[in-house]
Q: What sequence folds into this?
């Protein structure tokens, strides 16, 4: 179980609270949807759950333990801005190997062309780079995946293809999935449970 | 107002040592836009949507060569003319906050755009403030840096950068992803309002749902070519002509959510015939042999030999 308990967060001691006393839990193999208007701190909440940010108050735990300080984090985040999650000076093939060499079947399913591997991140379009970022999270050590508007920049066909791949990972590896999105029909198609913030 | 026919974009890249290779990323792209009209350009990433915008603004990299014809307000668009018009007569609403200066407050950036388009400093300041209030951005937002904005606010700031100018043609590059439906609706209605003022609007998006809310016509791009130009109403009335457009429509979560397997061909390995032939349910010998031409079918345009009138 990935659990966030009474989480509080703000970006500076004089700034307003962005995340205010939020609690949520997602079980292995469960798909939880998160929906809220812009500016409600959904992205920040995702970053707290994945350990990108530390909460001012409250705790994030995976199976009762806090997130590891070093090594591969069992909670992975696929963000809205893939360009911010990769090293701009690394070529794509190195980026893909950073955590774990991805399964060629996933590379195929995500539609990653071999021609992209020798390029730098800025030489790919947003949607292409997003698929690289998704491939990086499809690792056997990933127990929970936070998908923050993960397919918002993709066309409908590619979006449906990618969710097919992710849902097969969820059921095969019993990954707990948190889907943050504005797209109500998408959440209804994907999620076991939808939380409105 | 704008007419593009058979546009091609080819990049020359260094392969190994001094050996060069040609990479054709756009082949046979067609599009036309009238004043007062919103034309949506939809397609997968890598289908040439953003490159089209870059070609119109004359900001393709130096190793890119253009073929075909582009005319704007009756005159040919040369790279020199693009350079003169951009930011004044042709404006871009960029894709992400990555296009803003990270070290400058967003208020001064919007003001600067207005100044570069010909306003005096005081006019520009008033214009920027007026635009911010038009988009419900609180006053203190002007003093913030790009990283301090939420996704929705950032988008409204980006729209402001084009609205402060008097541009006749506005190109909105992916203005909606990741926004709450209400904000999407609002952003789109602002684009519609720009068209109502007599400007031409090109809405580049992968989001058909968003496109159909405001577009008069929709051009569908695939692997750097225009496969179909349809009226917006053709989508829900089952009047689509190209199998790729039909597949896109079916794969929406609110429809069947069933994708066509496979991928757009990469520019390195374009098939000699129809670019969609390897994924198409209608494929035949003719399709594999030759690139189909754009032709008129049921009041729209389609690049498929099997589409019936």
A:
């Amino acid at each position: 179980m990935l659990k966030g308990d009474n989480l509080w967060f703000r970006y500076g001691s004089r700034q307003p609270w962005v995340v205010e006393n939020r609690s949520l839990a997602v079980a292995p193999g469960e798909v939880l949807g998160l929906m809220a208007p812009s500016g409600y701190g959904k992205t920040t909440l995702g970053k707290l759950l994945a350990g990108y940010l530390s909460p001012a108050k409250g705790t994030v735990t995976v199976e009762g333990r806090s997130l590891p300080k070093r090594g591969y984090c069992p909670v992975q985040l696929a963000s809205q801005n893939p360009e911010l999650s990769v090293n701009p000076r690394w070529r794509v093939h190195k980026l893909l190997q950073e955590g774990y060499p991805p399964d060629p079947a996933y590379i195929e399913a995500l539609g990653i062309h071999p021609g992209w591997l020798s390029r730098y991140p800025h030489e790919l379009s947003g949607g292409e780079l997003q698929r690289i970022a998704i491939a990086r999270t499809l690792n056997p050590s990933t127990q929970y995946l936070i998908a923050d508007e993960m397919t918002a920049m993709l066309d409908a066909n590619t979006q449906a293809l990618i969710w097919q791949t992710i849902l097969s990972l969820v059921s095969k590896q019993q990954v707990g999935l948190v889907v943050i999105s504005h797209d109500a029909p998408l959440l209804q198609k994907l999620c076991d449970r939808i939380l409105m913030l | 107002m704008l007419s593009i026919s058979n546009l091609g974009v080819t990049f020359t890249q260094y392969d190994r040592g001094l050996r060069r290779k040609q990479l054709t990323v756009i082949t046979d792209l067609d599009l036309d836009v009238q004043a007062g009209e919103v034309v949506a350009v939809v397609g997968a990433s890598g289908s040439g949507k953003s490159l089209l915008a870059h070609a119109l603004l004359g900001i393709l990299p130096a190793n890119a060569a253009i073929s075909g014809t582009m005319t704007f307000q009756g005159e040919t668009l040369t790279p020199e003319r693009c350079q003169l018009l951009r930011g004044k007569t042709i404006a871009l609403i960029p894709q992400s906050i990555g296009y803003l200066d990270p070290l400058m407050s967003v208020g001064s950036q919007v003001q600067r755009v207005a100044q570069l388009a010909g306003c005096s400093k005081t006019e520009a300041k008033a214009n920027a403030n007026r635009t911010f209030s038009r988009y419900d951005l609180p006053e203190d937002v002007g003093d913030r840096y790009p990283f301090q904005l939420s996704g929705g606010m950032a988008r409204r700031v980006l729209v402001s950068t084009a609205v402060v100018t008097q541009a006749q043609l506005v190109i909105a590059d992916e203005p909606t992803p990741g926004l709450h439906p209400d904000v999407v609706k609002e952003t789109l209605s602002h684009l519609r309002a720009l068209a109502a003022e007599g400007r031409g609007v090109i809405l580049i998006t992968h989001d058909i749902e968003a496109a159909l809310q405001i577009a008069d016509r929709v051009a569908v791009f695939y692997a750097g070519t225009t496969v179909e130009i349809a009226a917006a109403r053709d989508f829900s009335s089952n009047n689509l002509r190209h199998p790729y457009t039909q597949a896109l429509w079916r794969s929406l979560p609110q429809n069947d959510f069933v994708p066509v397997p496979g991928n757009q061909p990469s520019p390195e390995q374009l098939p000699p015939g129809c670019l969609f032939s390897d994924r198409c349910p209608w494929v035949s010998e003719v399709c594999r042999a030759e690139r189909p031409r754009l032709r008129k079918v049921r009041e729209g345009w389609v690049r498929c030999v099997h589409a019936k009138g």
Q: What stands out?
A: Residues 2-97+106-226 of chain B form a domain with the Rossmann fold fold (CATH 3.40.50.300). Chain B has one domain: 2-97+106-226. The mean pLDDT of chain B is 90.
